Every structure is written in structure tokens, then in C-alpha cells.
TrEMBL record:
Name the record gives this protein: Tubulin polymerization-promoting protein family member 3
Region (Disordered): 121-147
Lineage: Eukaryota, Metazoa, Chordata, Craniata, Vertebrata
Gene, per the UniProt record: tppp3
Biological source species: Cottoperca gobio (Frogmouth)
Keyword Coiled coil: no
Residue spans of biased composition, Basic and acidic residues class: 128-147
Length: 172
């Protein structure tokens, strides 16, 4: 049962930076069912999974708790494992989910083409772009991008900046 909770938490936080791992939203519930092969295309479909989700959650809620998640699995178990007894089916469905985590199938891969390397090689930059990177090719961030204004009260190219106080002392 420990592994079941672990899986529940992993799917609960998947794709949501603010998620606590205590509740599972409908999207991640559907993902869990798909990734753990509960949806088999024959006995259990995506629609069945959505219906069960709506059935176990509270009326006003948009998420399910771990207890509701277990009830949802109980609902789906006899459907997914038709020939087995209720306990066996439940056991089997728990086995499908235990220790699993969200797969990232179809996630966009970073293109690594020779052209990309050539275009992002900072040592070949010229003009104003050259100033934005240090020798190793790392960006300088804000310093390289903006004309940073000195708030000293002096004109930019003034050579005697900061000498006003000294000048006033000598005249006394």
C-alpha cells in the first residue's frame, strides 16, 4: 500500500508546480490510468475513467483525495479484470499502479543540429551582440544588455567626478 501512495503522490504533483501531492486532478487521474495501463482500450476506456472520477469526488470538488482514489480503483478493478473476484481484481489493479510514475512520452526533445551549435556559438558574434557575452560564451545578463545609468549626478564622460566635496573644502 505504501507504493500505491507513492504513485498517487507522483501523479498528483505531475505538471503542477503548486500541487501538494495530497489531491489528484482529473487530468492527472486520466494520465495515471493511461500510464499504468488501466485503460486497455477493451474493457476500460478514457470515458469510463472520467465517469469514475466524477463519481468518487465530492460534488463541488475538482480533485480527488487518496481515499477517493482508492475507491475509484475499486470501481475500475472489476471492469478491468473481468474474470477475477473482487479482491483479486483489486489486487491486480493495485499492482498496475504501485511504484509507477508519470512517463514523459511525447515530450519535446531539444533539437541538436549542427546549425544550432553554429548559431549559438557566442565566440562568432560581432558588433553589439559580442558585448553581451564574456570570453567563455556565457551571457553577462543585464550588464551586457542595458546601458546601466550611474546615479551619481555627474555627466557620463566627466573626468573630475566625485571631486566636488574636495573642491569646496579648499576654497574655504
Amino acid at each position: 500500500m505504501e507504493q500505491l501512495l507513492t504513485s498517487f503522490k507522483r501523479f498528483a504533483v505531475h505538471g503542477d508546480t503548486k500541487a501538494t501531492g495530497k489531491e489528484l486532478n482529473g487530468k492527472n487521474w486520466a494520465k495515471l490510468c493511461k500510464d499504468c495501463k488501466i485503460i486497455d482500450g477493451k474493457n476500460v476506456s478514457g470515458t469510463d475513467v472520467d465517469i469514475v472520477f466524477s463519481k468518487v469526488k465530492q460534488k463541488t470538488s475538482r480533485v480527488i483525495t487518496y481515499e477517493e482514489f482508492q475507491r475509484a480503483l475499486e470501481e475500475l478493478a472489476p471492469k478491468r479484470f473481468k474474470g477475477e473476484s473482487k479482491e483479486e481484481a483489486l489486487e491486480s489493479i493495485f499492482k498496475l499502479v504501485e511504484g509507477r510514475e508519470p512517463t514523459n512520452a511525447g515530450v519535446t526533445k531539444v533539437a541538436k543540429a549542427p546549425a544550432l551549435d553554429r548559431l549559438t556559438d557566442a565566440s562568432r558574434y560581432t558588433g553589439s551582440h559580442k558585448e553581451r557575452f564574456d570570453g567563455s560564451g556565457r551571457g553577462k545578463g543585464r550588464e551586457g544588455r542595458e546601458e546601466l545609468v550611474e546615479k551619481t549626478g555627474y555627466v557620463g564622460a566627466y573626468k573630475n567626478a566625485g571631486t566636488y566635496d574636495n573642491k569646496m573644502k579648499t576654497e574655504k
